[in-house]
Amino acid sequence: MDDSTRARFFDALWNDFVDIAPHAADIRRALEEAGETVANDHVAFRTFDRGPIALSALEPIILQLGYKPFDEYHFPEKHLRARAYLCANSPRIFMSELIVGELSEGARQIVQSCTSALRTPLTKPSDLHLGRPWPALPFSAYERLAEESEYAAWLCALGLRANHFTVSVNALRRFATVSEVLDFVEQRGYRINAAGGRVKGSPGVYLEQGSTMADQRPVAFSDGSHVVPTCYYEFALRHPTAAGILYEGFVSQSADKIFESTHKL
Ligand code: NI
Question: How far is the CA of 224 from the centre of ligand 1 (A)?
């Protein structure tokens, strides 16, 4: 796949994302007005380990975009596994999936009521932002799920799309640290995810990250529209490893807390 096709995919993905997370577009505009050129460090997706939306079933689409698998990560407390993919001159892709079999019977049944109708294989890059491919749940089922797995509730309500985009702090000129970017964002009135500290990671693990809290937007449920957390914007600074090469991976302990950016406050 050529660079311009890939760029069009990321443009469409961004447009879908800012539709439900308009604060990210505002922050990007504010950075650009401050003279910055905003480059993406990575984009992240969420899915269930079920049928045509399982990570292994969606992976061929990521490879079709020109990416190569890079590494795997595990989040036992959140019942998640994830893979990272790399492609030269493009944002890294981080895709996690929920191991549905590890949820309680009640939560598993709600997720299966969503995923069991899925039959058709997903094959096109645009399928990665097709949204919710199952009927809307009752809001009470969403709330029941969120008690046990905020991730499962988010995914049932919002479906396949970018969960977050991440600004590369390395590519910014007037910001040297993640903390400075978070201050800039906070001064404009946006909330920062403080779970595990504002800045997750350190130069010692070669990656520092911070993020906003997700936008709160009305989303359609079977019994009408309810305001729920949608998507957030992240900021990442990468450091060179001992070999002198910029670190390309992710840090599970930090990502574990970044997942909580879609928690309801
Ligand atoms: Ni991220």
Answer: 31
CA of 164 to the centre of ligand 1 (A): 7
Identify whether the C-beta of residue 258 lies closer than 8 Å to the C-beta of residue 200: yes
pTM: 0.96
**64 CA from centroid of ligand 1 (Å):** 22
The whole-angstrom separation of Cα 78 and Cα 219 is 24
Tell me how far the alpha carbon of residue 199 lies from the centroid of ligand 1, in angstroms.
Answer: 13
Q: Name the DSSP class of 73.
A: E
Q: How far apart are the CA of 45 and the centre of ligand 1, in A?
A: 9
| Interatomic CA distance for residues 113 and 88, integer angstroms | 39
Please say if the pLDDT value at position 265 is more than 70. no
Over residues 168-196, the mean pLDDT reads 97
Nearest to 261 by CA among 71, 13, 24, 11: 24
Per DSSP, 250 falls in state -
176 CA distance to ligand 1 centroid (A)? 19
pLDDT tens for residues 132-165? 999 999 999 999 999 999 999 999 999 999 999 9
Instruction: Please write the tens of the pLDDT for every residue from 10-32.
Output: 999 999 999 999 999 999 999 99
Question: What is the chain's mean pLDDT, rounded?
Answer: 96
Structure tokens at 236: 């990442």
**SS3 label, residue 56:** helix
